[in-house]
Amino acid sequence: MINVIGLGYIGLPTALMMAAHGVEVVGTDYNKELVATLNAGKTTFKEDGLDDLFQDALKAGIKFTTEYQVTDTYIVSVPTPYDKFSKKVDACYVVAAVKDVMKVCPKGATVVIESTVSPGTIEKYVRPVIEENGFKIGEDINLVHAPERIIPGNMVYELLHNNRTIGADDKAIGEKVKKLYASFCQGDIVVTDIKTAEMTKVVENTFRAVNIAFANELAKICRHDNMDVYEIIRICNMHPRVNILQPGPGVGGHCISVDPWFLVGDYPSLANVINESMKTNDSMPDFVLERIYEIMKEKGLTDISRVGLYGLTYKENVDDMRESPTLQLLESQQRHLAPGLKVYDPFITSDVVDNQYHSLDSFLDAVDLVVIMVKHNEIKENMSKLADKVVLDCHNICDLDGVYHI
């Protein structure tokens, strides 16, 4: 039996996928309300294919509880926030979960850390917890790192098809865990050591963050001299060795916007390019806010409360708001003591910010300037409704005349 600890954005899909592919699974989470929702037959967030996977897992006998199980394999998939001031990973949730596992696990058990951590975190924080509880790693407890590599909006597909990395002290243990993930994973699974596994996950997201930062900085340069950044990128990408990403209003989620800071926090004198790249990405919501004021002045708009932000999530077609650029922009606006902007997102049905609307039509009726912060399918399919609005398109998806860009 596998006991999956933490039933959030990563732990729940992992638990469901394993159960649906013949593995006996019990999912554990301290959140009683979340566990009750799952036991009532409902998922706790929206994700393409997740409900069908949930039904398959229920038929296979998956169970959900707040209690840790006595078993031979644990998968820890709890959050790893970072300190915004020190830029270092906060491993407290991982440590707490491992401590609780140590209270019930038998000798010979394998503890798999799926949570994303900075290189050296398992050595510094997790190993001591196991040893303090009287277990000898490699004899009494096997320790493994298997970082997740999936993205909201495409989790189910990527769980099945993405390659994976298994880090272990003992290659034989690594191969054993590889077989567990191979029960559903159709991608290549590489077995390596733990610190290499830690590093590869962080480096993957850092690579993407740096590339996005280049595109965002290019957008600022082109805005300064009134050049079309999208046309420039399109032409440059015709070169066979060039692949510039698209600029945007910021970077959100709990991977690209967070993981690179782990390297900055751990290697402050070495991670210079990464540090500057993250600063560039973090500056984009403020840059969008400046563009809003520039456009208002140009168009003779004087009422900031008639400006609307379309999209609250960090990316399109999901309900995940973690590190959302829109939330960052609203926070920046509040620091400037400016009147509130109107906000709407079809995927966020509860009130999470002030001046939030719950239908596209009522939102559009209340604004003169629409800022497309998220490229949900809904707005792509309703571009005609923006014909009489001033539009700031932060993703270059609107083909109407007179549209503004970042």
Overall description:
There is one protein chain. With 406 residues, the protein is of the alpha/beta class. 41% of the residues lie in helices and 13% in strands. The protein folds into two domains: 191 residues, NAD(P)-binding Rossmann-like Domain (Rossmann fold, 3-Layer(aba) Sandwich); 202 residues, Rossmann fold. The strands form two sheets. It has an eight-stranded mixed sheet with strand order 3-2-1-4-5-6-7-8, sandwiched between helices. A six-stranded parallel sheet has the order 11-10-9-12-13-14. The longest helix is centred in the middle third of the chain and has 31 residues. The mean pLDDT is 94.
What's the SSE pattern?
Answer: EHEHHEEHEHEHEHEHHHHEHEEHEHEE
Number of strands: 14
The total of helices stands at 14
Sheet with the most strands: spatial strand order: 3-2-1-4-5-6-7-8
Task: Provide a compact summary of the structure.
This protein is an alpha/beta fold and 406 residues long.
Detail the topology: elements first, then pairings.
Elements: E1 2-5, H1 11-20, E2 25-28, H2 32-39, H3 50-60, E3 63-65, E4 73-76, H4 92-104, E5 109-113, H5 121-132, E6 141-145, H6 155-161, E7 164-168, H7 171-181, E8 189-192, H8 194-224, H9 229-236, H10 259-266, H11 272-299, E9 307-310, H12 325-335, E10 342-344, E11 356-357, H13 360-365, E12 369-372, H14 377-380, E13 390-393, E14 404-405
Parallel strand pairs: 1-2, 1-4, 2-3, 4-5, 5-6, 7-8, 9-10, 9-12, 10-11, 12-13, 13-14
Antiparallel strand pairs: 6-7
Key traits:
alpha/beta, 2 domains, Rossmann fold, globular, 6-stranded parallel beta sheet, 41% helix, 406 residues
